[in-house]
């Protein structure tokens, strides 16, 4: 008889340990939950059961809907009484309040002072001429100010005083102690000429006087040297009250608000005028000071300039620039050129300002002869247009060369060698 061999049966289900409590694990019974989740689920079950038991233990009073509405109305606050109906409303009119005694006294004082000021103005008009006589414009400005004060007085009579603070403010502003009679003095040059504006006196010193006369402004004592540094443009050599605002017209690439300041010597661009001037002084003007021997000469009036930019600005005095730009635009349309493309050498410029400066600087003779050319509809190609322009400019170039040769010969030959009659 064979003996039975013992074997392990732990793999069977009956030998496996019993599963722990799983909360609502009815979908997947084989899932095992960790101990923390089991404890948390037990707590939620206990809380829910306690809430339910408390709810069942409360005594609920049975009430009909009518009794419930009556109890709710008793707990609400009492409503305000209804407003009485109003009749039809007319236009709203604000009733003016009567003025107080102090305000009436201030108005009377203001009227008396206005009469005194008018009498003084009449005396000034009828008085003989003095060295510093107020001008007619200054007297008119005083009269306008007096009219404004009269209007303020009338408004004060009609105005309602809303609060005591506003009353004190109006009394302090329009009181008799705050009104001052200012004597108007004209600005005078040391030569005796008077002006209404201080800037006009400086303009007169720059335009009418020279360095040898040594005239100064009587008001501030500035001479020509100070006026040149503060008011004279170094590009066009013109007077400007606000020099920085005037320089913007030379450096900006367009007339819009988003204009960028462009260097006159290179293609670099900046945001402000000070940055452009600092760049020019550092990169361009210091080099030109060393070789200032170069002189740029005008072909029309033989005026010389130390810089090419001054010569370009000077050329606008000899040509009607507005008519010239119209002809150039028409010429660009004939040859299908771009907006900033030169119609003569076909070079594209970065901005409209540099394009116009290039025309006056490099193609001055062609620009001068453009006024004599009639751009007919038959001309369609670049060659025909260039041929017509070359024919018109050839005569002008020969005349300029002949003038230069004659001037050189005249300078070389002294007057003693000419035969005398």
TrEMBL record:
- Here the segments flagged for biased composition (Basic residues) are 83-96
Kindly give the InterPro entries that the UniProt entry links to this protein. Answer: Znf_C2H2_type
* Entry keywords, A to Z: Coiled coil, Metal-binding, Repeat, Zinc, Zinc-finger
**Record flagged with keyword Chaperone:** no
Question: From the record, what ranges are coiled-coil?
Answer: 135-162
GO CC field: nucleus
Q: Which intervals hold domain C2H2-type?
A: 296-323
One GO MF term: RNA polymerase II transcription regulatory region sequence-specific DNA binding
The segments labelled Disordered in the record are 71-98
Alphabetized PANTHER family for the sequence: AZ2-RELATED, ZINC FINGER PROTEIN 142
Q: What is this protein called?
A: C2H2-type domain-containing protein
């Amino acid at each position: 008889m064979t003996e039975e061999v013992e074997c392990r049966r732990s793999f069977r289900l009956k030998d496996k340990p019993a599963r722990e409590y799983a909360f609502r694990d009815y979908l997947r019974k084989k899932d095992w939950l960790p101990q923390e989740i089991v404890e948390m689920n037990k707590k939620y079950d206990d809380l829910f059961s306690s809430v339910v038991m408390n709810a069942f233990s409360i005594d609920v009073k049975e009430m009909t809907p009518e009794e419930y509405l009556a109890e709710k109305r008793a707990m609400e606050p009492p409503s305000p009484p209804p407003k009485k109906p109003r009749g039809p409303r007319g236009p709203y009119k604000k009733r003016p309040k009567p003025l107080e005694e102090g305000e009436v006294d201030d108005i009377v004082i203001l009227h008396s002072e206005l009469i005194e000021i008018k009498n003084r103005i009449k005396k000034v008009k009828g008085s003989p001429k003095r060295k510093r006589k107020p001008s007619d414009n200054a007297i008119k400005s005083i009269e306008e100010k007096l009219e404004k004060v009269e209007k303020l007085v009338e408004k004060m009579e009609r105005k309602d005083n809303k609060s005591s603070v506003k009353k004190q403010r109006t009394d302090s502003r329009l009181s008799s102690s705050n009104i001052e009679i200012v004597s108007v003095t004209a600005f005078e040059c040391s030569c005796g000429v008077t002006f209404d504006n201080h800037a006009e006196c400086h303009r007169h010193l720059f335009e009418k006087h020279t360095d040898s006369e040594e005239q100064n402004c009587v008001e501030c004592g500035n001479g020509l040297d100070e006026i040149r540094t503060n008011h004279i443009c170094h590009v066009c050599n013109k007077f400007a009250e606000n020099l920085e605002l005037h320089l913007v017209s030379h450096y900006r690439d367009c007339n819009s608000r988003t204009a960028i300041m462009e260097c006159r010597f290179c293609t670099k661009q900046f945001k402000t005028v000070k940055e452009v001037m600092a760049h020019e002084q550092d990169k361009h003007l210091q080099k030109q000071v060393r070789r200032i021997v170069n002189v740029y000469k005008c072909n029309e009036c033989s005026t010389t300039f130390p810089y090419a930019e001054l010569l370009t600005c000077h050329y606008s005095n000899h040509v009607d620039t507005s008519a010239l730009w119209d002809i150039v635009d028409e010429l660009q349309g004939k040859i299908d050129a771009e907006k900033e493309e030169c119609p003569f050498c076909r070079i594209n410029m970065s901005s409209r300002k540099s394009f116009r400066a290039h025309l006056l600087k490099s193609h001055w003779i062609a620009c001068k002869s453009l006024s004599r050319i009639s751009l007919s509809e038959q001309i369609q190609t670049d060659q025909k247009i260039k041929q017509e322009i070359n024919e018109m400019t050839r005569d002008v170039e020969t005349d300029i060369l002949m003038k230069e040769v004659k001037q050189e010969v005249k300078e070389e030959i002294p007057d003693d060698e000419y035969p005398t009659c």
